[in-house]
Amino acid sequence: MRYTALALDYDGTIAKDGQVAPHVQAGLEALKASGRKLVLVTGRELEELLGIFPGITAFDRVIAENGALLYRPATGERVELGEPPPRSLTEALRASGIPLAVGHTILATVRPHETVVLEAIARLGLEQQVIFNKGAVMVLPPGCNKASGLKHALAELGLSPRNVVAGGDGENDHAMLEYAEYAVATANGIATLKDAADYVTRATHGDGILEVVRGLLDDDLRELPPKRRRRALFLGKDAEGADIAIPSRRTSLLVAGEPRDTTGIALTLLERLCAAGYQFCALDTRGDYLDFHGAVVFGTLDHPPALEEMLTALDKPDVQTIACLAAVPAAERAAFVGRLRQPLRGLRATTGRPHWILVDEAHELVPASAQAEAYEGAENVIFVTSDPAALAPAVLAAVDGIATCGEHAGALLESLALAIGWPAPTLPSRVPRGDEALVWFRKSERPVALVRIRAAGKETQISRDEPREKSAEVGQVLRRA
To answer: For the chain, which domains are there?
Structure first.
């Protein structure tokens, strides 16, 4: 399961004229029964919402007041996420005579009274933001919006925004839809939100959201691919300066060549996964990744990793993990990966994470002699190898793209294509140089490209003088958490 949560606006999205239709409520409850989480994110005040929406109990978390208040329907608990509105501003707006609603954190009025609001904020010298939603005018503390509220809700639920589908219809939904992995605008939504969305529903309001619900239940949105690429995983630039990216969110890649060439590509990819907020688990046989900043490393050159500590770390969506297998005897490494494989598959099935798995020296960890059926059709796996001929056939059959490095990159790509059953490739006129690779994706119309791979930046590295035991200490903390 890739998409594990659905975050939705209320008015204009699931509700029409302030009410959620029974069949829309039934669809949302069916989605929750599939194991996914529901989060309601609305500009309404909570008390008002509780009075008009009995179906709120189907939601795992509610973010009210446009990101300022978190509500737990199962227990009735409330958590204020922002400071109360400044008393001076509340008094000034009440004295002005404009219609005004005062929430825990939010102040709300309607157009055309935004001029009065802005003048009062300027006159009082306050740091407040004004957010518009169709006819509504909302005043909130800086940085408080639907995205910030959703972030708090996901943290409580142990979910990553990279597994969230978000739907809305108005101006104040922009931040939430950008924060999520897959953005939905209802057919009745404003034009700018539709332009920014990955999918625009055919029907309006809750009936439009049911299109997405059905897509999630049927095939996890495989038949509703996003209309635009966001957070693309770039490999580098081709000879014409065009960006070359992994073509879809459900891709596996084989990186082949000598370790001195492939390690730079692998580190660059991990760096970019970190920057985009994707969780990864990397398996490292030689200790080449021990100094990667931003990840928790389990195991050292002298001590094998603790499997349970790794899995505990991966329960936390924002923790990246590297398993150093250098201290695991070579003959036992494939068995170690076998013990790790099933928990990783289970974690992906329930949480959609880790988003990516990198297997270095894959010919050792998933050899032809191993039972590698688990990798057949695997998504978001990067296999790095210096001996692709020794890989399990299921791995070769599963990959969607190949990147080969070094002076023999062309011959290597041709032999891999023959082994996998791809058509013979047309190669560029020259061989790759030190920081280049030949890149080919079989489902793309683009031919084999000579791509310059930017080396991993210094910001991803930590000093080799830092004690390697630090990773073990972090692992102990995670185990106790």
So the answer is: 5-82+144-219 (3.40.50.1000), 87-140 (no CATH), 234-480 (3.40.50.300)
